[in-house]
Amino acid sequence: LRQPTKTYTYSGVRDTTYNLKYVGWYQEGDSIICSGDTIARTIRIFARPVAQLNIFGSPICSGNQVRINASGTFGAQEFFFDMGDGNVIGPRLDTAGFNYTYSHLSDRPENFIVKLIAVNRISGCSDTAALPVVVNPQLVSRILLADSVSCAPYRVQFQGIISNSVTNWRWDFGTGRIDSVNRNPVVIFPSPVFVDTTYIVRLSVRNRFTGCSSFTERTIRVRAKPIAQFNLIGGNECGVVGIEANAVEAPANARYTWFVGEGTRTFSGPNLIYQYRNNGAVSYTHLRAHETVLD
Fold it and tell me: Which of 18, 150, 185, 220 supports an S-S bond with 180, CB 3.0-4.6 Å?
């Protein structure tokens, strides 16, 4: 043929060179009358690089990492990693493994197709390997409550604000153990007398199908409830009576209001000295102690 066509197939692991000759002649019937020139050409077929890709850790939870391992043979010199999320890493001159973090805001699992493109810079030949990564949605958890500071005993209605894919929730009310597995538990926090107590409340949530989990914490501060109690010195005398009253075991940040039983007169402070002039009428002294809220 004057203009033949030939397809050269993949040559294997090495570049291959073909030597071509074009010989022209004049022929009548079966006889060659004369031969013409011979033209020689060389064709080089480059070996195609081979991309090999391995992914460890899939499926993962959003925000976690997968391990990307890759290799390239047969002349691969540059490597590009298309992570499937719009991010392309490369060119890299080696196939050293690396970790990659996927994040997405969808509340459903999502597939990302990771592609490794191995390139021979001399020939421009390339090969592509692809594998999927399944990313499950990250769980969202938040603790909702009306107030985080109150006097003991403090009754708290907790509300767990969580994503739809949560199947298990665990509450730790500062004890270091699982205190409730309900979604919206009610808890009463006690407190020793005169001692403010802080509790770290932790909500852990999990999806038992994907294994994804999350946690959040809130601080609860329980104010110690003061006790109104005092000792009375003096009294039970005739005529003018002087008394001295002292509050007992009062917390340092408490406030006091004394009622001496004569009209609406009141006094403040932890100690009281008062003189009665009531001509035989009976009077009563009492104390109301209440804590000063100091944040």
Answer: 185
